[in-house]
Model the fold of this input.
Amino acid sequence: MKKFKFLEHTADVKFQAFGKSLEEAFGNSAIALKQIMTKGIEKDVKGKISKKIKITGDDLEGLLYNFLEEFLYLLDAENFLLSEIDCIKIKNNKLEAELSGDKARNYKFTNDVKAVTYNEMFVKHAKGKWIVQVVLDV
Done:
């Protein structure tokens, strides 16, 4: 199964991420976000630093929004760049994840993501798989 795909959008970046589970779809959305920010070097990001995050949301879209915004916050506030999501659990609109990454200053960025948006966002289960769609303001 494909992890994610980028879709046409006039001014911003739009993608869909997929998974057999909700956790896999959320994890793949974070990897898509990382690829947008680090295109060409995304595989070079080392997993030197471990981090745990806890996120809540009013619904699945809110949880996805807050989850992806957390990576932008970690980048800006803590100079943390995601390498991999080692573990992710979602239950009752609460998410816990274990991440690995590195100091962002060690890498060259290709795309500045300003924010995650609710525009055209969805989280749905169809035909035995989860699909999430996100538009990023770049």
Q: What stands out?
A: Residues 4-137 form a domain with the Archease, Possible Chaperone; Chain: A; domain 1 fold (CATH 3.55.10.10). Residues 60-78 form the longest helix (19 residues). DSSP finds two helices and seven strands in the chain. The chain has a mean pLDDT of 94.
